[in-house]
């Protein structure tokens, strides 16, 4: 897989996400961008070192199984190429989510660590949006995926 990636964010389990957010905010100057409770994350706090550009750089959540490392690709074409390469190498994708701010693919590495690969769509969403989508849509024309992100496509 030759798509250029960069580290997007790290999500780690925490007994007290708010306490850790306060610590990392005071120590590193990270800003809280979102916090709440969701079934798949438990209690969570998103922190960012560049909140105007990126919703999360570091995430704390009470559900340990939600921990993951996220990698950002630079374009929809790169996400599609990475999906095709994963399919060709028989790498199993666990699921795909449309967060509107990103299209995200989730898989496990050979040791079972959770990995997210995402393309930032440029959409602005208030809060946290999560809608599963069929990753096979990545084999469709870009217009299909852009309609999905814009909320005008059937899933």
Report on this structure:
The protein has 155 residues and is α+β, with helices and mostly antiparallel strands. The chain has helices at 17-28, 76-88, 142-149, and strands at residues 5-13, 31-38, 42-48, 58-61, 68-73, 93-98, 102-108, 114-120, 131-132. The protein is globular, with a radius of gyration of 16 Å. The longest helix is centred in the middle third of the chain and has 13 residues, at 76-88. The chain starts with a strand and ends in a 6-residue tail after the last helix. The protein has a single domain (5-149), classed as Roll (2,3-Dihydroxybiphenyl 1,2-Dioxygenase, domain 1), CATH 3.10.180.10. The chain has a 9-stranded mixed beta sheet with strand order 2-3-4-1-5-8-7-6-9.
What descriptive keywords fit this protein?
globular, alpha+beta, nine-stranded mixed β-sheet, single chain, 2,3-Dihydroxybiphenyl 1,2-Dioxygenase, domain 1, 155 residues, 36% strand, 3 helices
């Amino acid at each position: 897989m030759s798509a250029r990636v960069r580290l997007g964010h790290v999500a780690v389990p925490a007994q007290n996400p708010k306490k850790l957010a306060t610590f990392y905010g005071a120590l590193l100057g990270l800003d809280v961008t979102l916090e709440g409770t969701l079934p798949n994350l438990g209690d969570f706090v998103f922190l960012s070192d560049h909140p105007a550009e990126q919703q999360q750089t570091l995430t704390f959540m009470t559900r340990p199984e939600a921990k993951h490392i996220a990698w950002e690709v630079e374009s929809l074409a790169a996400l599609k190429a990475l999906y095709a390469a994963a399919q060709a190498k028989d790498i199993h994708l666990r699921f795909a989510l449309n967060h509107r701010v990103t299209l995200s693919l989730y898989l496990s590495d050979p040791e079972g660590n959770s990995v997210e690969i995402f393309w930032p769509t440029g959409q602005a969403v208030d809060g946290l949006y999560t809608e599963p989508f069929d990753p096979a849509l990545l084999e469709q024309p870009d217009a299909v995926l852009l309609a999905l992100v814009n909320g005008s496509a059937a899933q």
